[in-house]
């Protein structure tokens, strides 16, 4: 990953951060996948081979990227302990990256093995419904927040290739809207973000490393559209998208932005304030989040609405 500008792992922006675009099922720990597989009696390759199978190292295509999920999703899907564990560990990872608020998106149906047709990942019929998946993820997020002081909220994904799941997703968003679910997304070969309330501030969710490795933009970071967004003072955030698959971290995306796109500490502050203003939290929680950032950034600002 040295070509992406890693700086010996030292954060280039060692202050609280906000992340708005990361897929939970693209952010598992490979070590956890192997551990769960062993417990469940699922045969997988050794760690280094598994890492090669599950990651993208060079610019490719979105289709090749999506194929990576087939190597590991069957291990986590349909297992209560595993689903709750990956949610908890996700919060721990984000806390170590300095993230104080994160919105994680996932398809409940892709982690279920009951009340879903077709049952994904060639699983056998089980008893974990999409509804229980959401409940388990929220439990993991809540326990992670208590342990690591990082707040995580869910965005539920409709899948472009399985439109019959969409009404279920809408109903789950309604059911859990006051219990940790803040938005809905359309995922698959293309992505369309849907706002959860009419007064939401729209923003571009930029994922530099992801957009390079999926072939979404020029592989030369000095030609990345984020540079123009920065020049135009557009409203955008910095995000990882699928850090396990890209073998990356949020800090690495920040390093890329600094090294190849000229981002300064003041730019990073503005990015995170914009992200907080654009998140799907209710107004009161959003104000608290902004106050936390302004204090950490030594900035005075009235965030009253």
TrEMBL record:
Pfam families linked to this entry: A_deaminase
Protein name (record): Adenosine deaminase
Location relative to the cell: Cell membrane; Cytoplasmic vesicle lumen
Enzyme class: hydrolase
Family to which this protein belongs: Belongs to the metallo-dependent hydrolases superfamily. Adenosine and AMP deaminases family.
Biological source species: Triplophysa tibetana
Any one Gene Ontology molecular-function term assigned to this protein's record: metal ion binding
InterPro entries to which the protein is assigned, alphabetical: A/AMP_deam_AS, A_deaminase_dom, Ado/ade_deaminase, Metal_Hydrolase
Cofactor(s), names only, from the UniProt record: Zn(2+)
Adenosine deaminase domain: residues covered: 16-205
């Amino acid at each position: 990953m040295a070509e992406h500008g890693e700086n010996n792992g030292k954060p280039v922006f060692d202050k609280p951060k906000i992340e708005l675009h990361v897929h939970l099922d693209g952010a598992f720990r490979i070590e956890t996948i192997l551990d769960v597989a062993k417990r469940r009696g699922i045969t997988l390759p050794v760690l280094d081979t598994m890492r090669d199978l599950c990651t993208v190292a060079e610019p490719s295509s979105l289709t090749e990227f999506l194929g990576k999920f087939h190597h590991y999703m069957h291990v986590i899907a349909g297992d209560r302990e595993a689903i709750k564990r990956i949610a908890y560990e996700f919060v721990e990872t984000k806390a170590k990256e300095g993230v104080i608020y994160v919105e994680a998106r996932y398809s409940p149906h892709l982690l279920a093995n009951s009340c879903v047709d077709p049952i994904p990942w060639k699983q056998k019929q089980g008893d974990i419904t999409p509804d229980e998946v959401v409940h388990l993820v929220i439990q993991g997020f809540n326990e992670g927040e208590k342990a690591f002081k990082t707040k995580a909220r869910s965005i539920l994904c409709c899948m472009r290739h399985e439109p019959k799941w969409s009404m279920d997703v809408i109903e789950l968003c309604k059911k859990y809207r006051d219990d940790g679910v803040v938005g809905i997304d359309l995922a698959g070969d293309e992505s369309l973000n849907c706002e959860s309330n009419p007064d939401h501030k729209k923003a571009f969710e930029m994922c530099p490393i992801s957009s390079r490795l999926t072939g979404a933009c020029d592989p030369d970071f000095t030609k990345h559209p984020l540079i123009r967004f920065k020049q135009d003072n557009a409203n955008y955030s910095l995000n990882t998208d699928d850090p396990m698959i890209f073998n990356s971290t949020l800090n690495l995306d920040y390093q890329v932005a600094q090294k190849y796109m000229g981002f300064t500490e003041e730019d990073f502050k503005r990015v995170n304030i914009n992200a907080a203003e654009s998140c799907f939290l209710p107004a009161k929680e959003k104000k608290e989040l902004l106050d936390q950032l302004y204090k950490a950034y030594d900035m005075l600002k009235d965030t009253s609405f």
